[in-house]
Write a structure and sequence with these properties.
Largest sheet: 3 strands, antiparallel
Structural class: alpha+beta
Order of helices and strands: HHHEEHHHHEEE
Strand content: 5-15%
Length: 216
Amino acid sequence: MTLPKPPPRHEKRVLLYALASGLPAVAATALLLWQGEHSSRLVWTVMLFVVVTWLGFSFAVRERVIFPLRTLSNLLAALREGDYTLRARATEGDAMGEVMTEVNLMSAMLREQRLSALEASRLLRNVMEEIDVAVFTFDSQERLKLVNRAGEKLLGAPSERLLDLTAEELGLGGFLQEAARARRSSSYPEARGATVSAAARFAARGGRIVCSCSRT
């Protein structure tokens, strides 16, 4: 069983089209030269010039088409990796320039959204630090992503040791499984056996669950 032949790459197709567009003119030139009463030296000289020019422009067309696509690929890869500082040179009045302009606008928009998210996160952290109630923020996989000072004190460990732990590992899994508001008492060995009365409050905001716990 023979496998189907894969289609030629985009670069090869562009080159083949460029060569095919100039082939009739090259063939006609060769035919006219050989049928005319010209010396062999003149014929070969003209044919060499025509063929070299034909191949040179064909490869130039290939590079002219491929280079902007590679630039666009690099820009999109940078956006995927979170680098929004790169910009493409956009030429007004052509299709590729419009594409580059849209990519630049998208990059600027993502950069503004990232800065806004960082500012909001910084503000949230500052507000949480001032709250005397323990606040734990979990992601959709129930891993801790944010905790304030009261939460660190409640669990008896710094945030560096608590972040990315699951709710079950922290002993908060039961609170995340409660529906609406609930009250539950729990003992934390890290807090020297202190009894904790926890009010679990749930919020489905952007895939995050916020559990607020206070010590009594």
